[in-house]
Amino acid sequence: MIQVVITGIGLISALGESLEESWHNLIAGHSAIKLHQPFPQLKPYPLAMIGAQPAGLKILTQLVVSSALKDAGLVPPLPDCGVVIGSSRSYQGLWEEMVRNMGVHGEETNEAYNSSYPTPHTPYPTPFLHHWLETLPHMNAIAAARQIGACGVVLAPMAACSTGIWAIAQAAHLIQTGQCQRVIAGAVEAPITPLTLTGFQQMGALATTGAYPFDVHREGLVLGEGGAVFVLESLELAKQRQAKIYGQILGFGLTNDAGYVVAPDSEGKSAIAAIKQCLRRSQLTPNDIDYIHAHGTATQLNDRIESLIIQQLFSLNVAVSSTKGSTGHTLGASGALGTAFSLVALNKQISPPCIGLKEPEFDLNFVREIRETVIRHVLCLSFGFGGQNTVLALKTWV
Description:
About 30% of the residues lie in helices and about 20% in strands. By secondary structure, it is of the alpha/beta class.
């Protein structure tokens, strides 16, 4: 089997506009969650926003892709590079903005969609209707391919909150099967829109004060903005160009509950199957795992079922934390952010803290403060609406 390694990371979050800044603020115990009212027609909500206004997907993707390439020491064009970049909301914010303006003005208004964005904080522009094809769900991945001059395979996974890990798994599979030697992969999310906020509010899933994963007093999820993109390469290619290596992707697991749209299986059967599938592919046992980056949304059902799954499969020694109390829940991008933080944890041998957790409801080895320890193998978990279960196994590189 071809070995797959990660040689570059680009990340932006409400915690910071780079991987380094976000990690520094994470291990310092900071949370980017604050009360915001980005839409006057809606009440204020706790949100993890990058700027004062909702961010745009286009510029976020451009930034993380550029950062990942720079980190990997690569310069476009990269015609043979595969692209797998997903998003659970994609350009939904632009569509909502376009409809609102059409409703008010009765015709196309404002600046063209192709205008340049000076910062990631710029509000959504309103596209002219003849640019609407540029806002279809898969076009963000196509735009990334254009940005780097990639002429090979382009995939745009959309699997709710499991999108990020699914994208990385698809990219790893392309390399393992010899279809590509290099793939840029990850997920980006700009989810703060009136429809998304209203939908989660009607479900009763939104928190009112903050995100408290696995806590007795958890209230629900807090939406956050951000994205993470990785350069994946075959070990042979990485060694050939003497690239730095963050870690190795050992395996992944992908399953579906085939049950309820908004609730996980009460026994977590398919999620357990995904973890076992990932461990088997990675040639690992549960005792080999040193740290689990949990999905940890701070919703009642997810945290309870996820805790039961971890308790059933792993010993109490394995360290567990979720970073959503710090970054907010970036939906489709959350697994990608979790993977990035896990890779830094592997390199620095530090388990990141579960910000927002004060009084644990579950008997697990939660990381309440940063913990310096030996970390060789990490599991990243993501569970999405619709019963999407994704698991990724990472190994330290020495």
